[in-house]
Amino acid sequence: MIVGNKVANENELKDMSEKADTEALQNDHRSHGPKDMALSVVKKIRENLLFVLTLLAVFGGLILGVIVQQCVKPHSYDMVVILLKFPGEILLRMLKCVILPLVVASVITGLGAINAKSCGKIGGVAVAYYMTTTVMAAILGLCLVSAIRPGEGNTDFKETGGAVNADPNTNTLDTIMDLLRGAFPDNIVSATFGKHATKFSEVADTDKDGNDLGTTHLERSLKFVDGSMNMIGIIVFSIVCGVIMSLHPEESAPLMRVIQSINDLTMRLVYLILWYSPIGIFFLIAGQFAGVEDFGKMMQQLGLYMGTVLGGIAIHFFIVLPTLYVVFTRKNPIPYYYNMLPAMATAFGTDSSSATMPVTMKCVEERNMIDRRVSRFVIPVGATINMDGTALYEAVACLFIAQVNGISLNFGQVVVTGLTATLAAIGAAGIPSAGLVTMVMVLNAVNLPTDMISVLLTIDWFLDRFRTITNVMGDALGCAIVQKMCENELREMDLEKEAQEDGPGQTDPLLNDVVSSL
To answer: How far is 455 from 439, CA to CA, in rounded Å?
Structure first.
């Protein structure tokens, strides 16, 4: 009797299970109806509303810019462009306003939360990754421009655009020394307003009595240049502070709480700014495209050069960087790229890796689940020294100018070009078109004419947006690679933190064995 009841119960349960599976299947089929699919699409749009608005702003701004460029009368042209760019200028000002507190607080809190040994490894892996990808980008650019040779036959260029704000006497040694000086500012407050740079001025030659000899010579001097933050010096200062605070956690705990609060408040401020970003990006792109005088002529003269640069950026963006990601993390890069789309759209609109940094941090931490201890160090440093797109661009531009002038560079000069382009990219600020200024150093390294840089001004605004996207994506992938390479150190820190939270004398012996084995 008991066996019979047991069998009956089992059969009843089986029937109920089959019935539930059938109902679930029917519900699943019903859920794929047109109404549910529409609701699903609406839900996805609501979840990614900021990205959708940013994407619409990019394409909408492009269309409006082309319409304005075709319709506006020449006499009112300049004023229309200024008015179009004005809302975008407000966005750039707001983003740049939060860069300083965001960088300082992020680096200090990121490094302050990890021990000194792990700081060294995370920093070493990050810098090694940045240097490797920058050198690879420069080599890729040199190979492409040597194979395609876009400058041959293009000897009819006319100088267009304004002059480039750069010293033609700049050389590699002075640039390296300026970088090192910048890393150790004599006044951290003044570093937020500008930086020291080597400048040359013509001085009249005189005899012993002070009479003018009618000749001049160049005199080197170190001058303070306003208008550009010494970001390298600020980051080095923040790194040192973060490491010292990690070595003395008890004494620095009150200050760490204050800095953490500043960091949290800054990120909330960034979140508010981001909801304005679609409007700013829409008008920035519209104003930029409206400002192009003759897009067809520009494409005719520099189309092959543009194709070479964009081809190199595409290879680096879609092949080189994802390959490194797969090799080190053993993961599919497509979801990671998809989660970074808001940062890419912002980078295209603002044309600045520094201005995009808040969005980059938000994407890597909230969408790609990167450890904050890694992202808060890697992203600010990367936004300053990781310029893959700029290195590739400067290498291509240098050999392009040589080809236009019929100058043949030997292998040694090509190597010098690649190395100098790497150094110039590291020294370039994360601001729009900064690479044009540092390109003077690359051209001087192989004795090429610097006056032709103004030719590239006509299309630099366009190419610079794609370079910025590449730089931002390089920073983001660097976070994932650094996290993977340092996962043992991060796990060890988590275990140590758990042990400390248990209190003295209450630590599990097994936990100690695990920590020591790691």
So the answer is: 13
